[in-house]
Write a structure and sequence with these properties.
CATH topology of the largest domain: Alpha-Beta Plaits
Helix content: 40-55%
Number of helices: 4
CATH architecture of the largest domain: 2-Layer Sandwich
CATH superfamily of the largest domain: ACT-like. Chain A, domain 2
Number of domains: 2
Strand content: 25-35%
CATH class of the largest domain: Alpha Beta
Shape: globular
Distance between the termini: 34 Å
Length: about 130
Protein backbone atom coordinates (compact mmCIF):
# COMPACT_ATOMS: atom_id res chain seq x y z
CA UNK A 1 0.00 0.00 0.00
CA UNK A 2 1.49 3.41 -0.93
CA UNK A 3 2.40 5.79 1.90
CA UNK A 4 1.18 9.40 1.66
CA UNK A 5 2.43 12.18 3.94
CA UNK A 6 -0.15 14.66 5.21
CA UNK A 7 0.49 17.91 7.09
CA UNK A 8 -2.22 19.04 9.53
CA UNK A 9 -2.34 21.59 12.34
CA UNK A 10 -2.33 20.64 16.03
CA UNK A 11 -6.07 21.21 16.50
CA UNK A 12 -6.96 18.93 13.62
CA UNK A 13 -4.51 16.28 14.85
CA UNK A 14 -6.11 16.38 18.30
CA UNK A 15 -9.58 16.00 16.78
CA UNK A 16 -8.35 13.17 14.56
CA UNK A 17 -6.96 11.34 17.61
CA UNK A 18 -10.28 11.84 19.41
CA UNK A 19 -12.18 10.34 16.45
CA UNK A 20 -9.76 7.42 16.42
CA UNK A 21 -10.41 6.70 20.11
CA UNK A 22 -14.18 7.27 20.07
CA UNK A 23 -14.85 5.26 16.91
CA UNK A 24 -12.29 2.57 17.68
CA UNK A 25 -10.07 2.92 14.61
CA UNK A 26 -6.79 0.99 14.84
CA UNK A 27 -4.72 4.02 13.81
CA UNK A 28 -4.67 7.43 12.20
CA UNK A 29 -4.31 5.92 8.74
CA UNK A 30 -7.64 4.12 9.19
CA UNK A 31 -9.31 7.43 10.08
CA UNK A 32 -7.88 9.08 6.98
CA UNK A 33 -8.96 6.18 4.76
CA UNK A 34 -12.51 6.30 6.17
CA UNK A 35 -12.65 10.07 5.67
CA UNK A 36 -11.37 9.75 2.11
CA UNK A 37 -14.00 7.11 1.32
CA UNK A 38 -16.78 9.42 2.59
CA UNK A 39 -15.45 12.35 0.60
CA UNK A 40 -15.23 10.21 -2.55
CA UNK A 41 -18.81 8.97 -2.05
CA UNK A 42 -20.06 12.56 -1.68
CA UNK A 43 -18.18 13.66 -4.82
CA UNK A 44 -19.56 10.76 -6.85
CA UNK A 45 -23.11 11.42 -5.66
CA UNK A 46 -22.80 15.11 -6.58
CA UNK A 47 -21.46 14.21 -10.04
CA UNK A 48 -24.47 11.99 -10.70
CA UNK A 49 -26.95 14.80 -10.10
CA UNK A 50 -28.60 16.12 -13.24
CA UNK A 51 -31.53 18.22 -14.33
CA UNK A 52 -33.45 20.48 -11.98
CA UNK A 53 -32.69 19.82 -8.32
CA UNK A 54 -33.49 21.14 -4.91
CA UNK A 55 -31.01 20.93 -2.10
CA UNK A 56 -29.52 22.34 1.05
CA UNK A 57 -25.97 23.65 1.31
CA UNK A 58 -24.59 23.78 4.86
CA UNK A 59 -21.48 25.90 5.44
CA UNK A 60 -19.54 26.45 8.67
CA UNK A 61 -16.85 29.09 8.35
CA UNK A 62 -14.80 31.68 10.18
CA UNK A 63 -16.06 35.24 10.28
CA UNK A 64 -13.05 36.21 8.15
CA UNK A 65 -14.54 34.47 5.12
CA UNK A 66 -17.99 36.02 5.48
CA UNK A 67 -17.42 38.39 2.55
CA UNK A 68 -16.32 35.47 0.34
CA UNK A 69 -19.53 33.61 1.19
CA UNK A 70 -21.57 36.74 0.39
CA UNK A 71 -19.86 37.00 -3.01
CA UNK A 72 -20.72 33.34 -3.69
CA UNK A 73 -24.32 33.93 -2.62
CA UNK A 74 -24.64 36.74 -5.16
CA UNK A 75 -22.85 34.81 -7.90
CA UNK A 76 -25.35 31.97 -7.46
CA UNK A 77 -28.45 34.05 -6.70
CA UNK A 78 -30.26 32.28 -9.54
CA UNK A 79 -30.33 29.09 -7.42
CA UNK A 80 -30.39 30.49 -3.85
CA UNK A 81 -33.98 30.46 -2.66
CA UNK A 82 -33.29 31.16 1.02
CA UNK A 83 -30.26 31.75 3.23
CA UNK A 84 -30.06 31.47 7.00
CA UNK A 85 -27.01 33.01 8.69
CA UNK A 86 -26.02 32.59 12.33
CA UNK A 87 -23.15 34.08 14.38
CA UNK A 88 -23.68 32.15 17.59
CA UNK A 89 -20.92 29.56 17.17
CA UNK A 90 -17.72 30.68 19.00
CA UNK A 91 -16.30 32.95 16.32
CA UNK A 92 -17.84 30.91 13.53
CA UNK A 93 -20.69 31.53 11.16
CA UNK A 94 -23.22 28.94 10.08
CA UNK A 95 -24.92 29.45 6.73
CA UNK A 96 -27.71 27.27 5.44
CA UNK A 97 -28.69 27.81 1.82
CA UNK A 98 -31.87 26.36 0.37
CA UNK A 99 -31.15 25.88 -3.32
CA UNK A 100 -33.24 25.16 -6.38
CA UNK A 101 -32.01 24.96 -9.95
CA UNK A 102 -29.75 23.18 -12.37
CA UNK A 103 -27.72 20.39 -10.73
CA UNK A 104 -24.49 21.69 -12.26
CA UNK A 105 -25.07 25.08 -10.62
CA UNK A 106 -25.67 23.42 -7.23
CA UNK A 107 -22.39 21.48 -7.57
CA UNK A 108 -20.54 24.59 -8.73
CA UNK A 109 -21.77 26.63 -5.77
CA UNK A 110 -20.68 23.90 -3.33
CA UNK A 111 -17.21 23.82 -4.96
CA UNK A 112 -16.97 27.62 -4.97
CA UNK A 113 -17.85 27.88 -1.28
CA UNK A 114 -15.43 25.07 -0.38
CA UNK A 115 -12.60 27.11 -1.91
CA UNK A 116 -13.38 30.22 0.18
CA UNK A 117 -11.06 31.31 3.01
CA UNK A 118 -11.72 29.84 6.44
CA UNK A 119 -14.32 27.23 5.52
CA UNK A 120 -14.49 24.40 8.08
CA UNK A 121 -17.36 22.37 6.68
CA UNK A 122 -19.40 22.25 3.48
CA UNK A 123 -22.13 19.72 2.80
CA UNK A 124 -24.51 19.66 -0.16
CA UNK A 125 -27.59 17.60 0.58
CA UNK A 126 -29.98 16.67 -2.21
CA UNK A 127 -33.01 14.39 -2.13
CA UNK A 128 -31.59 12.03 -4.79
Amino acid sequence: MPVVSVSINDRLLSELDMVQRVLGFSGRSEVFRAGARLLIQDAKAAQELEGEQGGVLIVLHGKGSESDITVAKHEYEDIVDTQLHNHSLEGKCLDIFILKGNAMRLRDMARHVTACGEVDYVKLITPY
